Amino acid sequence: MPRFLSMVRIDENEMAGAEFPDEFNDRMGKLLEEITKAGVMLDTAGLMPTSQATRVTWSGGKVSYTDGPFTETKEVVGGYAMMQCKDMAEAVEWARRFVEVHPAEWSVTCEVREIQAG
Amino acid sequence: MAVTAAGAQKTAETVEAVFRIESARIIAGVTRVVRDVGIAEEIAQDALVAALEQWPESGVPDRPGAWLMATAKHRAIDLVRRRETYARKLAEVGRTLEDAPPPEEPAGPDDIDDDLLRLIFTACHPVLSTDARIALTLRLLGGLTTEEIARAFLAAEPTVAQRIVRAKRGLARAGVAFEVPYGADRAERLGSVLEVIYLVFNEGYAATAGDDLVRPALCEDALRLARVLQGLMPAEPEVHGLAALLEFQASRIPARTGPGGEPVLLADQNRSRWNGLLMRRGVEALHRAGGGPYGPYTLQAAIAACHARAGRYEDTDWATIAALYAQLARLTPSPVVELNRAVALSMAEGPSAGLALVDALRDEPALKDYHLLPSVRGDLLARLGRHEEACDEFERAAGMTRNARERELLLDRADRARAGRP
Known about the structure:
Chain A is α+β, with helices and mostly antiparallel strands and 118 residues long.
């Protein structure tokens, strides 16, 4: 049973002033519990905003550091879920349920990638 | 709107994925209405067929799981009503039929969990043989096809199909109630559930026959069941203990076989290949099992945790492991536990201490065909420099194992013992 990493991409500018409605937290909590109870969720977490991030880059044989926020990309990874599913279709179905609990006016993208075995 | 071939394919994949995710819950919910897992499974399949027919036209509904459940429940209630009508007609002509339960209202999430738990306890009911319990649990709760189960257990598909049919009939014949046991027999019934999951995992972890040493897919199916059970029975320490044990064992799978598929002994495993995430999950599950007194699965998980904590084989805390095996031997006395205790003791106190225990097991009828007895004895003798005897023991063990990979390893050890090398 392969493992999948679902990277949750969000638009940080959009999220900056966003309200988190109570029922959103409830719905999300219930869904995460459901995915866990299905024996699928191995690990999940949200990430701190890129304003608190640092990029460490290796290029041309030199290391450089870039502090956030990373405004040049519209969408940044804001969280992740690691799931163990029978196949990609199952992982995608859980990702669909995950994006659907978000308010309609937000844009959220789950990039679902299979993790290399071994 | 025309449905494109690619779209139809995508929809079919979605339907199947949704069904796999939901099927155990649908079967459980329907069983509560019709009181028969065999009929419930057929009704669930009907709902799947209905989805495959309708969704490519109508699109996937917003809550596909709820759609499948409602469709299946609807059919179940129809069936029960038809039965009631039939019963009334029979009564009119002076016969009786068993009381059919009244159709029930749609269930909330807690009810669904409860139904799922009932289904697990029903599939693992002690009236069924162990093989039947395993097949039925994988079919109804693991969502495996009969073909997948047959492949996993190296059995013929018709044999497994037959086994599942007989198991469903056996449950109906024995009048097994669709319930979670809450009485004197609860512990024993839970033991039966845990044992089924453990046996499935073990068949994948130490394949008893065939050419592959490990069949990870089976381990993963068992692990998923253990995790599901953790969600359903969070207050049962042994449920967490079993999950912890399986997480730890699964974390070692990548290191247990070499590049050619040959087995790699614990001492020689590259520990950087142990899966850190699964080890952490094991630690967490062991923590959730509480402070004791430990049941047998939790004890085994605690032993596995000792191995996980050792960064190198030399760092293993064998004294603690030997003490845990001694506890396990008091709780569930068995020659196999004693053999493991001998190994731990030989590592903690030296090969002679282990050999004394192993020699006491030599006439144990339960170990008559157990290749690990001569294999362990060979190892202890080799460590004591008694190479001739060690060689004999390895050869005896090689003749006893049904696993081709293991046989190669044992014959290699026999050769090395003959040459007087470790």
